[in-house]
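dumping this here before i forget
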Amino acid sequence: MSKLKIIARLWSHITDLQLYIAGNRKKSLEQIEKELDLTEMYCRPYADTDDVEEA
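structure:
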């Protein structure tokens, strides 16, 4: 998964958590946690890489 798609997923998680906190629960906390775990899996290939881009 591309870094851009991962960032989009993270923003989606933030929105889900904000809705959960506000009481507008579209997803259960367990569902949100499972989706966060999946996103973490997608991040693993990037965990040990440098983000320094060459000009």
